[in-house]
Amino acid sequence: MTLTHNHDQIQATQAGSLPRTPELIAANAARRFDGDGFTLERTPEFEGLLTDAVVDLVQRQTDAGITIPGDGEYGKAMSYDVDYGAWWTYSFQRTAGLELTEFNPILASPVRSEPGNVRLTSFADRRDWTIFADAYQDPSSGIQIGKNATAFPSATGPLRYTGQAAIASDIANLKAGLNAAGASTGFLTALSPGSASRIGNEYYATEEEFIYAWADVLREEYQAIVDAGLVVQIDDPSIAENWDQINPEPSVEDYRKFTQIRVEALNYALRGLPEDQVRFHVCWGSWHGPHTTDIEFRHIVDLVLSINAGAYSFEAGNVRHEHEWTLWQDTTLPDGKLLIPGVVSHATNVVEHPELVAQRIERFASLVGPENVIAGTDCGLGGRLHPQIAAAKLQSLGAGARLASERLFSRV
């Protein structure tokens, strides 16, 4: 299973997370923690429920017109309806060298950066959250990030990948779903080293050493997915999102240097893996907030394109980033690469009309060629939208891709 260019239709996919079933959320909430306080036990009963849920989900995606489905990140624990962190916290379950400490990256004390010395502050001290503090602290504002399934540990020893059984389960479940639905290609998500390293570090001497330790750990997961014949999607909101987590705002030059280390570590982790089985997802954090301090995509698009992937997934369907489609008027898509712009957004409960979805697809097709565009979602819909609304958005995504296909490929 590889990423392929379009021949007679626009392919459609989604960015990873999809809403869990009530049964799966309840089963996750009922799981006990191991002695470390953050690793969730796995039981045969839970594994059976998980397999059935993934098989059903893949069928629902293909029924909606999604041609490249995923497992919805169902193997990444989510114990609450609203959870913006399952894409990240799952990695704690699959890595040795971590333990709970007093450090919490969400609520830690603020950290101040200075020119030439960029450092991440706590999540609660990010600039968008402080500018709109009243809104973020008002439970009726509609801004929420929910609750994570596990606590955040810190690195207190050498990191080592221990997720072999978990990723094998993810692979088997997705393959079972693909076989049952008759789908030819599917993808699983995996965390990037740069995003993984945003926890406490009490062991590694430098930040760069810590990031590369994560690269060695996560490479095992990437390799397992690729070896299984599936597509791996690297989830890395940190490439864009870190900008808002630096206080005060840095210069673009300093930020690019800070980010380059993370790009190089990811490419190190991806070394030798076939690019046509790798896609890269970048977003600006996904939470339902103002996002007035998001970095402009034009400042980092070349860094994104330097990542050794065959396709690039990014936000293009919400009101903060939709205008950036014009960036591709002056940005050359490297030969053989694909774009996966978000043409349906996680950021609103309003369901996009299929005609709007088609128009968004056609904008990108006019700039990089219809053969090079896969229609996607801005970010994961799971933990952010009600299941009924998310299902309607996938239906609209599939319908919009069909509309665009009729127009774009009838002209060829």
TrEMBL record:
Q: Which InterPro entries match?
A: Met_Synth_C/arc, UROD/MetE-like_sf
User: What domain of life does the UniProt record list for this protein's source?
Assistant: Bacteria
Q: Name one Pfam family in it.
A: Meth_synt_2
User: Which Gene3D superfamilies does the annotation name?
Assistant: 3.20.20.210
Instruction: Supply the SUPFAM superfamilies for this chain.
Output: UROD/MetE-like
Which residues belong to any copy of the Cobalamin-independent methionine synthase MetE C-terminal/archaeal domain?
206-389
> Which CDD domains does the entry mention?
CIMS_C_terminal_like
- Matching PANTHER family: METHIONINE SYNTHASE (PTHR43844), SYNTHASE, VITAMIN-B12 INDEPENDENT, PUTATIVE (AFU_ORTHOLOGUE AFUA_3G12060)-RELATED (PTHR43844:SF2)
**What is the protein name stated in its UniProt record?**
Cobalamin-independent methionine synthase II family protein
Q: Which organism is it from?
A: Arthrobacter gallicola
